[in-house]
């Protein structure tokens, strides 16, 4: 989402991430990334797209375990951006028709909608508090200084990963206990260098790839840097892919450059690609 101070920034087109074994490349609008596979046979990626910034040059593409990075002092900055920062949301046009009446809602003929059996939502087996004001975990206590929340969540076989604004957390799916977080997604790029380690513009998206049993977290960087930089640099899309099904373990890093602001890109998991 575009924050109120971003109105004048041009917006980049949506990119497509295609997964093909053994390749890592970037072209205008197309990104190719290795397909994650079983931990025992997964070859380590061999290259990363460089980002010309004052930060140190990349030193590797695989991170230390998130559980170790999050337990240290990396990025011990306050949660969120400048206090009171908000985002402008467009006004949604009203639904045509009678006020309060949606003809496609399937409640039954008496309610004015299409008749259909009503299936109760099952009660949750486990419930717990997610990221938000006052949330506490191994990474500290979370506060809120920007809005809206820009929430995203992925549900795996044994874990749940959530992102809200500038923070992410990993939960045990069975118990709800916090395994890691709240921590900045850029912690995944600790020691790599470039904008993905030094800058953070929020709006992270998390996905669970159930075909490969891997986690994908992506966010954009460069907006805050370019607002104050004497010499502008390309905007960057940061992509981290877990090397195992454990989101608290190591992650592979990728970054892709754009000449314009790539504000709040989205990814989806396809059979052979991330789009």
* Rounded average pLDDT: 73
Radius of gyration: 20 Å
Strand-and-helix sequence, N→C? Answer: EEEHEEEEEEEEHEEHEEE
Q: Alpha-carbon distance between the termini?
A: 19 Å
Shape label: globular
Helix content: under 10%
Name the beta content range: 25-35%
Structural class: mainly beta
Number-wise, the strands total 16
**Uncertain spans:** 1-59, 72-86
Strand order of the largest sheet: 2-3-1-16
Count up the helices.
3
Report the major sheet.
Answer: 4 strands, mixed
Short characterization:
This protein has 275 residues and is mainly β. It has helices at 66-71, 195-198, 223-228, and strands at 16-19, 25-27, 30-33, 85-86, 136-137, 140-141, 146-147, 152-155, 159-164, 167-172, 178-183, 205-209, 214-221, 235-242, 251-258, 273-274. The longest helix has 6 residues, at 66-71.
List the helices and strands and how they pair.
Elements: E1 16-19, E2 25-27, E3 30-33, H1 66-71, E4 85-86, E5 136-137, E6 140-141, E7 146-147, E8 152-155, E9 159-164, E10 167-172, E11 178-183, H2 195-198, E12 205-209, E13 214-221, H3 223-228, E14 235-242, E15 251-258, E16 273-274
Parallel strand pairs: 1-3, 4-7
Antiparallel strand pairs: 1-16, 2-3, 5-6, 8-9, 9-10, 10-11, 12-13, 13-14, 14-15
What does this entry look like structurally?
The chain is mainly beta. The protein is 6% helix and 26% strand. It has three helices and 16 strands. The strands form five sheets. The chain has a four-stranded mixed β-sheet with strand order 2-3-1-16, with no helix packed on it. A four-stranded antiparallel β-sheet has the order 8-9-10-11. A four-stranded antiparallel β-sheet has the order 12-13-14-15. A hairpin with a 4-residue loop joins strand 12 and strand 13. The longest helix has 6 residues, at 66-71. The chain is globular. The model is unreliable at 1-59 and 72-86 (pLDDT under 50).
